[in-house]
Design a protein that fits this description.
de novo design (two linked rop proteins), elongated, mainly alpha, 81% helix
């Protein structure tokens, strides 16, 4: 393999990694927006209010930590931010399981959908 083909191969790999990174950033942003919109449909009573606040914070933190991981601060920092993003996704799932839908079948279906989407 020539030096030129190695450079081209690395360049294509870097472009692919950037494209995947951008796609994930976009997906995390869309997830946070949809969770926010879902939370607007919930009943904000004394029980749900804290769960909803935590859910909104956690869902937004997934993408925020992923974006921070892509900053060029070293591999150890990148790995830590990715781990934090993963924990925030788990926390989002936890609070999705706690919010009350008060027998609203449409809201309950949406809650289950978002909870299941975090399993992928």
């Amino acid at each position: 393999m020539s030096e030129k083909s190695t450079i081209v191969g690395k360049s294509l790999l870097a472009q692919f990694a950037i494209a995947i990174s951008k796609e994930l950033e976009d997906r995390f942003l869309e997830f946070a927006r949809r969770v926010r919109d879902f939370c607007r449909r919930l009943k904000w009573d004394i029980i749900n209010t804290e769960y909803i606040k935590q859910l909104i914070k956690a869902s937004g933190s997934v993408g925020a930590n992923y974006i921070e991981a892509s900053d060029d601060l070293g591999k150890a920092d990148e790995r830590m931010k990715i781990k934090i993003a993963r924990r925030e996704a788990k926390e989002s799932k936890h609070f999705l399981s706690l919010v009350l839908t008060y027998d609203d079948s449409e809201v309950e279906k949406e809650r289950i959908y978002w909870s299941m989407s975090l399993n992928k």
